[in-house]
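Can anyone check this?
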Amino acid sequence: MDSASFSIEGLVVGREEPAEGHRDLSLFSAERGLLRCRRRLSASKPSPVPDLFSEIEAVLNPMGGGQLFFLGEWQILRARPSIGEDYRRLDAAGALARLVLRNARWLATFDRASLLMGKALDALEAKAPPEAARLKALFLLARSEGYPVTEDWLMALPTPDRDGMDGLLRNPIVSCEVPPADLSRYRRNLERWIAVETDFVL
């Protein structure tokens, strides 16, 4: 990787507590995947750090052999403050962020995962049903990685459950009318399939 600084757009999927004059965060980019970044904190003036689930454009400066990047100038491209106003939305967004953090290095492509994450978080920001956003993103991510989730998992569901999933997949998340309890059941079922049939770490 080039040692020169570069500008990049990405989604903040992780943010650690401040430590020893700095704060680390994880940025997921459609271009480069997961990037670990460090923001220096000043003792004499505010040193803002991007919020979780926000999309930013930032200048990164490589350090430590290219495994860590100093976060230089940055600006918010899209903030999602409403996610943090509701525990269920925050929990769903956090689960999706952890999925990226744990699996980014093995993704076949970063751009599709970035697009799916953005759509799911936008839906949560718009106060869509949290379980619907989480389930749909999980299903589509598995499918985008080439796993036979439609053929092996979806088609094996009982007809009422398959109809509910079909409605979720064919329509915008915000218009989902499937009861939350059913969505949670579908998700747990899908997670069991993923744990056995894929390389994803949940």
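Reply from J.R.: I decoded it. The mean pLDDT is 95.
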